[in-house]
Fold these 3 entries.
Entry 1:
Amino acid sequence: MRSAASVRQDPYLAQPPWAPPAGGLRTWECGEHFDAVRIPATLAPPLIAALQTAGGRGPVLADPYSGSWHILLDPGTVQSAPWARYGIRLLRPGTRLTVPAAHVTTGTDLHWHIPPGIGETPTELLGDILNDGPHDISPRRGAQRARRSR
């Protein structure tokens, strides 16, 4: 994967094989090319900020319609038990997740907050932040930050 220094460079240079072509959408079963952890939109900003501070640069999918975000991780690496709080859920293997092309990074529909092809988030890093992370990663704090940023 590409280094963190290249975050804003062309995301088409190192696309994973599951990324759809420009203008397209593709639906995959979780566990095939990636695992996915669903988080409420109110929790997403502080959690993603903590991940990025710690070096996590993997794909993050934002779905404003459903009010959830998805952190994509390497397949077969997620243990669900310790993350079942604050509305955080592992999408079970076989659960279908639709992803847009990597260039779709804004808008009110499904889009990438962090597009694929620019880095990865180790599963252990996400687990550490969720289990031992700073106290500002909570739904209440995330909701307060979301309201302030509007």
Entry 2:
Amino acid sequence: MKKLVVFAFILLSTQAFSQEQGFFGKMLSRTSFGLKAGGNYSNFVDAAFETEGLPGFHVGGMINFKLSERFSIQQDFLYSTQGAKLKNPGLFFGQKENIELAYMSVPILLRYQTAGGLFLEAGPQANMLITDDEDFAGYLGVEKFADKVDAGIAGGLGYEFQKGPVRGLGISARYYMGFMDVGKFTSASVKPDFKNSVAQVSISYVFGKKN
């Protein structure tokens, strides 16, 4: 009787393990990983001071989870340099011309991709501040210039090669519009309620691209 119970237990455990492995195997077969890098052109929207675009860059990794033949969820983890160039720096901020910030950007986008490789994507994005601009905080007499968290919406389009030796290589353009105030300070001369705006052009590569 004991042998029968032990045998039944082993059989059930093996079946449960096989089912679990099958589930995770299916999830993994729908998942692709890759790297991405490119250029930024950032600015502030609704700022009380005059600004223009500031060149920067982004670099990091990405995960794509396939929902169906055409739809997937694209999540990026990007180190992104942002900010703005001041037209009249001496008016509020001394003589330093560029407000320079750096974020860890995490967009979670719904992607639609055609059989030929063209894709469209859109969804929310969260940004965690990595590097603040201490010089401008000093000019304003405050401890922090930018808030630690920024969030908004991103959308873009691109193309990913589906065949041949360059399969998995992609090029894309994306635009991000922030919904939260960038400034984390109180000043009588400058309002902190300006928003982040970033245009990006990227080159990416997906490893082990799934069919």
Entry 3:
Amino acid sequence: MVAVIVLSVAVVILVPVGFVVSFFYVWGKNHENLRFPSDDVTLSSGRPAAATGRPVVEVLVASQAAQRGTFTVYVEFRDARGKGKGEGDSGPAGKRTVVFKDLERGGTETEEVVGPVPVRGRPECVVADAMFLSTASAATSRPGAP
């Protein structure tokens, strides 16, 4: 009787643990080569424009996507206000969106983006978000397509 109880408890504990371990193993295998669009985006260091004081940054997209597509990049500007570094020491200075249309795989493109409001001192510029939408036709995106 003790053996049946021990076996039942072992099954009740080990089966859920086995499912959890299997889930994370499969999750890891499915996502091991996953790339995010933000991995293809680089920002130059921000600088204030001499005439207006608004932040200026150069956005570079170097596409490593599997197919051609459009990148939409959301750039966030922050005003350092002469304080220490870090988001807690800076104030918001607006956001801008830049779109790179129909970029080929391996293609690069740059665009200068100007922030909406003037800043004091050196602005902080970060990629708030980046999205990729494939523009390849279904025939060219299928493996083994002619």
